[in-house]
Design goal:
Elements: H1 3-7, E1 35-43, E2 46-55, H2 60-72, E3 77-81, E4 85-87, H3 91-105, E5 109-113, H4 117-126, E6 133-135, H5 140-150
Parallel strand pairs: 2-3, 2-4, 3-5, 5-6
Antiparallel strand pairs: 1-2
Helix pairs in contact: 2-3
Protein backbone atom coordinates (compact mmCIF):
# COMPACT_ATOMS: atom_id res chain seq x y z
CA UNK A 1 0.00 0.00 0.00
CA UNK A 2 1.35 3.42 -0.92
CA UNK A 3 1.92 5.92 1.86
CA UNK A 4 -0.26 8.56 0.16
CA UNK A 5 -3.16 6.08 0.28
CA UNK A 6 -2.71 5.65 4.01
CA UNK A 7 -2.39 9.40 4.52
CA UNK A 8 -5.70 10.08 2.76
CA UNK A 9 -7.55 7.24 4.46
CA UNK A 10 -7.75 5.13 1.31
CA UNK A 11 -7.60 1.42 2.01
CA UNK A 12 -7.64 -0.84 -1.05
CA UNK A 13 -10.17 -3.62 -0.80
CA UNK A 14 -10.12 -6.90 -2.67
CA UNK A 15 -13.02 -9.30 -2.56
CA UNK A 16 -12.25 -12.98 -1.95
CA UNK A 17 -12.21 -15.14 -5.05
CA UNK A 18 -15.67 -15.99 -6.30
CA UNK A 19 -17.40 -13.13 -4.44
CA UNK A 20 -18.88 -10.04 -6.01
CA UNK A 21 -19.49 -6.58 -4.65
CA UNK A 22 -23.06 -5.72 -3.66
CA UNK A 23 -24.14 -2.86 -5.88
CA UNK A 24 -27.89 -2.35 -5.49
CA UNK A 25 -30.62 -2.55 -2.89
CA UNK A 26 -32.14 -5.44 -4.81
CA UNK A 27 -28.88 -7.42 -4.32
CA UNK A 28 -29.67 -7.66 -0.60
CA UNK A 29 -33.44 -7.93 -0.91
CA UNK A 30 -34.30 -4.30 -0.12
CA UNK A 31 -36.60 -1.96 -1.97
CA UNK A 32 -34.59 0.73 -3.77
CA UNK A 33 -34.78 4.17 -2.18
CA UNK A 34 -35.01 7.35 -4.18
CA UNK A 35 -32.41 10.04 -3.55
CA UNK A 36 -31.42 12.92 -5.79
CA UNK A 37 -28.37 14.95 -4.78
CA UNK A 38 -27.81 18.52 -6.00
CA UNK A 39 -24.60 20.44 -5.35
CA UNK A 40 -24.14 24.21 -5.67
CA UNK A 41 -21.06 26.32 -5.17
CA UNK A 42 -21.72 29.40 -3.07
CA UNK A 43 -18.47 31.30 -3.24
CA UNK A 44 -14.82 30.40 -3.13
CA UNK A 45 -14.58 27.01 -1.48
CA UNK A 46 -18.05 26.93 0.12
CA UNK A 47 -20.71 24.58 -1.27
CA UNK A 48 -24.18 23.36 -0.43
CA UNK A 49 -25.30 19.78 -0.98
CA UNK A 50 -29.05 19.19 -1.09
CA UNK A 51 -30.17 15.56 -1.08
CA UNK A 52 -33.86 15.02 -1.82
CA UNK A 53 -35.51 11.76 -0.82
CA UNK A 54 -34.67 8.96 1.57
CA UNK A 55 -31.15 8.76 2.95
CA UNK A 56 -30.40 5.21 4.09
CA UNK A 57 -28.02 2.30 3.64
CA UNK A 58 -29.00 2.02 -0.03
CA UNK A 59 -28.53 5.68 -0.94
CA UNK A 60 -25.54 6.67 1.20
CA UNK A 61 -23.25 5.96 -1.76
CA UNK A 62 -24.95 8.65 -3.87
CA UNK A 63 -24.49 11.22 -1.14
CA UNK A 64 -20.95 10.01 -0.57
CA UNK A 65 -20.09 10.53 -4.23
CA UNK A 66 -21.12 14.20 -4.00
CA UNK A 67 -19.42 14.84 -0.64
CA UNK A 68 -16.13 13.14 -1.54
CA UNK A 69 -16.08 15.12 -4.79
CA UNK A 70 -16.17 18.32 -2.75
CA UNK A 71 -13.49 17.06 -0.37
CA UNK A 72 -11.25 16.26 -3.36
CA UNK A 73 -12.00 19.70 -4.84
CA UNK A 74 -10.68 21.22 -1.57
CA UNK A 75 -13.98 22.71 -0.38
CA UNK A 76 -13.58 24.26 3.05
CA UNK A 77 -17.23 24.72 4.07
CA UNK A 78 -19.82 22.15 3.05
CA UNK A 79 -23.42 22.76 4.03
CA UNK A 80 -25.57 19.64 3.91
CA UNK A 81 -29.16 20.89 3.55
CA UNK A 82 -31.36 18.11 4.94
CA UNK A 83 -34.67 19.95 4.50
CA UNK A 84 -35.98 17.61 1.78
CA UNK A 85 -34.36 14.47 3.16
CA UNK A 86 -35.72 11.69 5.33
CA UNK A 87 -33.02 9.97 7.38
CA UNK A 88 -34.25 6.37 7.46
CA UNK A 89 -31.37 4.76 9.37
CA UNK A 90 -27.94 5.45 10.83
CA UNK A 91 -25.96 4.22 7.80
CA UNK A 92 -25.10 7.73 6.50
CA UNK A 93 -23.65 8.81 9.85
CA UNK A 94 -20.34 7.01 9.26
CA UNK A 95 -19.96 8.81 5.94
CA UNK A 96 -20.66 12.17 7.57
CA UNK A 97 -18.09 11.53 10.31
CA UNK A 98 -15.43 10.65 7.72
CA UNK A 99 -16.19 13.72 5.61
CA UNK A 100 -16.14 15.98 8.67
CA UNK A 101 -12.77 14.51 9.67
CA UNK A 102 -11.25 15.18 6.23
CA UNK A 103 -12.61 18.72 6.15
CA UNK A 104 -11.49 19.55 9.68
CA UNK A 105 -7.93 18.36 8.97
CA UNK A 106 -7.74 21.23 6.48
CA UNK A 107 -9.53 23.74 8.69
CA UNK A 108 -12.91 23.14 7.04
CA UNK A 109 -16.32 22.25 8.40
CA UNK A 110 -19.39 20.18 7.54
CA UNK A 111 -22.60 21.98 8.53
CA UNK A 112 -25.83 20.01 8.85
CA UNK A 113 -28.70 22.40 8.10
CA UNK A 114 -32.46 22.02 8.49
CA UNK A 115 -32.39 18.46 9.83
CA UNK A 116 -35.79 17.15 10.93
CA UNK A 117 -36.58 16.05 14.48
CA UNK A 118 -35.82 12.37 13.79
CA UNK A 119 -32.37 13.20 12.38
CA UNK A 120 -31.57 15.48 15.34
CA UNK A 121 -32.67 12.77 17.78
CA UNK A 122 -30.47 10.21 16.02
CA UNK A 123 -27.47 12.56 16.20
CA UNK A 124 -28.12 13.13 19.91
CA UNK A 125 -28.57 9.41 20.65
CA UNK A 126 -25.31 8.50 18.91
CA UNK A 127 -23.33 11.32 20.53
CA UNK A 128 -22.64 12.87 17.14
CA UNK A 129 -24.51 16.10 17.82
CA UNK A 130 -21.26 17.43 19.32
CA UNK A 131 -19.21 16.42 16.25
CA UNK A 132 -21.11 18.53 13.72
CA UNK A 133 -22.20 22.12 13.40
CA UNK A 134 -25.99 21.79 13.31
CA UNK A 135 -28.18 24.67 12.14
CA UNK A 136 -31.97 24.78 12.24
CA UNK A 137 -32.04 26.98 9.13
CA UNK A 138 -29.79 27.84 6.23
CA UNK A 139 -27.18 30.52 6.86
CA UNK A 140 -28.55 33.92 5.74
CA UNK A 141 -26.02 34.20 2.91
CA UNK A 142 -27.28 30.90 1.44
CA UNK A 143 -30.91 31.96 1.69
CA UNK A 144 -30.04 35.10 -0.33
CA UNK A 145 -28.29 33.01 -2.97
CA UNK A 146 -31.31 30.70 -3.29
CA UNK A 147 -33.74 33.65 -3.46
CA UNK A 148 -31.69 35.31 -6.22
CA UNK A 149 -31.41 32.08 -8.22
CA UNK A 150 -35.13 31.26 -7.91
CA UNK A 151 -36.33 34.67 -9.12
Amino acid sequence: MQSDQLQHGVVPFRLPSGRRRITTAEDVGLEPSALEVRTRELSGRACVVSPEGTLDVCTTGRLGHALWGLVEARASRVILDLNDTRLADSAPLGLLVLVQGQLSRRGGVLVLARADRKARELLEATGLADVFVIEQWLPPSLERVQTLRES
